Amino acid sequence: xxxxxxxxxxxxxxxxxxxxxxxxxxxxxxxxxxxxxxxxxxxxxxxxxxxxxxxxxxxxxxxxxxxxxxxxxxxxxxxxxxxxxxxxxxxxxxxxxxxxxxxxxxxxxxxxxxxxxxxxxxxxxxxxxxxxxxxxxxxxxxxxxxxxxxxxxxxxxxxxxxxxxxxxxxxxxxxxxxxxxxxxxxxxxxxxxxxxxxxxxxxxxxxxxxxxxxxxxxxxxxxxxxxxxxxxxxxxxxxxxxxxxxxxxxxxxxxxxxxxxxxxxxxxxxxxxxxxxxx
Length: 279
Prior knowledge:
single chain; Leucine-rich repeat, LRR (right-handed beta-alpha superhelix); leucine-rich repeat; repeat
């Protein structure tokens, strides 16, 4: 763990930190680091492969770690925390594609910097990510659809950037109903923002028409069933009630059929009993 937050460090991010393969908590937030985010983050082995066994023989002191905007105290479970916090610096440039290889990373906080470019779609490969904070940067482009594959994501903040287009509505992103996490992106639209996307009104009207059409189809289906029942029932029973001769003929036919069936069954049983007796 390397925790150097809230100091006055300047200069570029030291690339040598990428050689610390067992580093699983990196907190350089609230400093004055400048330059770009290094592309060597995928050398942090503990954020790519599970190497927690190295802590079995070490004493882990009680430590305070900032996650999801809150300070939390860890001791024996500290080895399970995997976090990178570079927030509140002067970092610029694009978010490197290599960061998508940190599949075990739980928290990524790059907020309050001067980052530009698109949010890499490869972030969707970071399946262990629970917190993603990219707010207060200068990121542009659309929110990648791949974010919906982050099934453990519970804290998201993309506010105050230059993101555009419709907010994806994947299975996981539907759980974020707080519009403030998208605020400050004037060209962003869709739920949960109050800004509608182009074509939403047409889509709503089309859906309403489909619902009405479906409702009308169901109504006429049930009306047809009722009418069919009424016509069929009274076509047979009504005729029998009105025509006395037909009623007698119907019941005579019914009784004759019943007698024939009963006789046939009795003959079958008698023949079977005879065969059994001979055996």
